[in-house]
Every structure is written in C-alpha cells, then in structure tokens.
Amino acid sequence: MSQPIELVLFDFDGVVVDSEIISLRMLVTELAQQGVTVDIPYVARHFLGRSYPTVIAQIREEFGITLPAGFEADYRARLIAAFEAEGLKVMPHLREVLGALAVPYCLATSSSPARVASSLAMTGLTAAFEGRITTASEVKRGKPAPDLPLRAAEKAGVPPERCLLIEDSLAGIGAGLAAGMAVWQFTGGSHLANGAVPQDPQTLPHRQFASFAELPHLAPDLFLTGT
C-alpha cells in the first residue's frame, strides 16, 4: 500500500458473512426451474459480486430468456429463508478485526438494503455496521464499475487512494482497481473452498488472504497497538 490507509471497505456477502455458497446453490436451483441450466462454477465466475439487475440482464443476453416479474421477490424471500434455515454465519475472526481496527470501516455491497439488513440482524452485526453501509441501490452502475466503492469512500470523506477494499469476487476486485484503491482478496469463504478461486489475469488483487486472523499481521498499521 503506497498510501497510508484511512478507510477499510468490506464487501458483504462472501467477506463479512459466509453467505455466497448458499446464494450460489439457490440461484442454480431457481434458474433450473426457469429452464436455465448452469452450475456453481459458472455462477461464481459470471454472477458473483454483481447486483441483481446486472445478473438478470446477463441471463437475458446469454440464454435468451426473460425471467417472470415475480422471480426476484420470490428468490430473495427464499434466500433469506435459506439463510435462517442453514444458520448464516459471520466469517471467523471478523468481529475481532472490527473491534481492533484503528481506522474507520464500512460496507460496500451489491446486495439490496433489505437483504443486508436481514443478514446483519441474523448475525448480530447490525450495531457494528450502523451508518456504515453503501449498497448498489445508491449508484447507477454496479461492479465491476468503480461507482460503488467510490460512493462509499465519498460518504466517508476519504480519497480512494487512501482506501483498502476487501473483496472476494472478480467483479468486486475490478471495481476496486478501477476506483484506484488498494484491493485485497479474501479467499476464506465456503464458496471458494478447495482452491475454487476465480482467476483473471486482467483482474489481479494486490494481495490475497484466507483468514481474518491474518489481517493484523499483514497490515499492522491499521490496528490498535497490542492487537
């Protein structure tokens, strides 16, 4: 990191909460019921980190199918029910990291405000991120355009070159790089188990790490003394 970091931006799904494996399985199942046959690796590479409207537009373009009007609402409702049934979990050591950071932090997520609120409530993180949330609903272009992380940085009053973005998806990494931020890829989510990390030589993070327990050692200047 060439510039001192004044803000840490976290993606949400697949970084703060271990939700992406549930979301990927659900989307594969829901699309199959609409006649679209894809597998989890396909969904992970093409849809991970993107907003719902972007995903729907890509499905329409690639498969020539327009999903029914109620698809989004039904999918979101079933997904929240799946989070509750399977027990949505916070990433290990994430709470300790939030409590020990010496710089401000926030969320920059493609998820809808309602989904973020439900997931935070489920995992007991509402207070930790209150007033620190930016969603794709606040920008015109979703990831990999830089609009989302730039909007989050703007709200915090921090220039992008002094931001560290922690992402899991290629789309999110691309957004952070386009925004001019330091970008670290978190690879510890269940959806990236067994080395199933999407690769793109044109979209390379500045660093990868697999556990939040590593973060204080990788970036000690971001943490309170004695962490």
UniProtKB/TrEMBL annotation:
PANTHER family associated with the record: 6-PHOSPHOGLUCONATE PHOSPHATASE
Top-level taxon of origin: Bacteria
UniProt family annotation: Belongs to the HAD-like hydrolase superfamily. CbbY/CbbZ/Gph/YieH family.
InterPro entries for the chain: Beta-PGM-like (IPR051600), HAD-like_sf (IPR036412), HAD-SF_hydro_IA (IPR006439), HAD_sf (IPR023214), PGP-like_dom2 (IPR023198)
Gene Ontology molecular function: any one: hydrolase activity
Naturally occurring in which organism (per UniProt): Alloyangia pacifica
Protein name as it appears in the record: Hydrolase
Keyword annotations: Hydrolase, Magnesium, Metal-binding
